[in-house]
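Hi V.,

You were right to ask for the full record rather than a summary. Here it is.
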Amino acid sequence: MQRACAAALLINGETRILKPGHSNDDKAALGIIKALGAEVLIKNEELIINSSGVNPIENEINCGESGLSIRMFTPLVALSDKEITINGSGSLASRPMDFFDEILPQLGVKIKSNDGKLPMTIQGPLQPKNIEVDGSLSSQFLTGLLMAFGAADASDISIKVNNLNSRPYIDLTLDVMKQFGMKVPENKNYEEFIFSNDSAPDSKLPTHDYTVEGDWSGGAFLLVAGAIAGPITVRGLDLSSTQADKAIIDALMAANAGIAMDAKGIVIHPTEMNGFYFDATDCPDLFPPLVALAAYCNGKTTIKGVSRLTHKESNRAITLQDEFDKMGVTIDLEDDKMIIHGGGTVKGADVHSQHDHRIAMACAVAALKATEETVIEEAQAVKKSYPDFYNDLKSLGASVSLPNQQYNL
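Predicted structure:
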């Protein structure tokens, strides 16, 4: 959804976005493109976006708490020659953005930041040049640069990337760029992205239709819920998607979960599950649902990629360890690995989301078969990515109540 908003801003003409999201992150993206000159109309549950490129009508954009928005839109803001301040809220204010302090000046962009944190003030126009970037912190920085270079009609220019993590998310970015008719670079094994005249699209369409895919990141929690307390059927997830979190299917199979794919969707039901090994380096957002899954698996589960969890909405490794400990689940952290000791009794408890949407959902899913009631403080954090989450759990038969902005399960 957010990538589609960015692409709709960058191309000339009208875009119809079908099945749009309405999470706080989605709303932040729409607010940004409106501030950058796009016209947005909601019509019959579709979004109609008209744009002629980046033409800011405001001197500040606010990314809310969306890490993707700030990393993707900052290079797009830099396409303009207007000085613009970029801000955010919540945990985003403390997340490192010094990548831009290093890279943007190489592209002719002036930048002032708060010691590598928000707020940032930048002024372009961005001028594509051969650059080399570090992809170890987040692929989202590269997503923004690829879109900006494509929109600036870069030719005979490349972006070299070292240590790129979360490669599937770059596949998703390139796929969206292609569907919108943008200039798409040649991908040289995720180590170099080359823009050439051959990268140009064959034609410019006056109208683009884009259907937002079902979200595997949110769907992962429902699939785990089915494995723990199903059976349920989940529809609308594309098994051919480039989304990184589609890998939840591999984890469920490794755990011996009762899962089957048919014409109606993904059908999943409880079985006796075993501990498993899973490398989440390229899909770190799967850590929370995987921990909930592992809590109900006999034996030890090992998940690799803990280093990717530090700069999320919370330090997710520590938060998962602390909150699941309250539910009777022991988690060890050893270097880049998380070891979950499953198969014991999962207890209902008073837990806290630490203002992290995925922690709230993980605790809720784990609570579905817990011995007693679970109370989740700051449960409304789910609005960031999946505002309908608790209603969906209720529709599946879970007992959910909302007293005083807490959630009881």
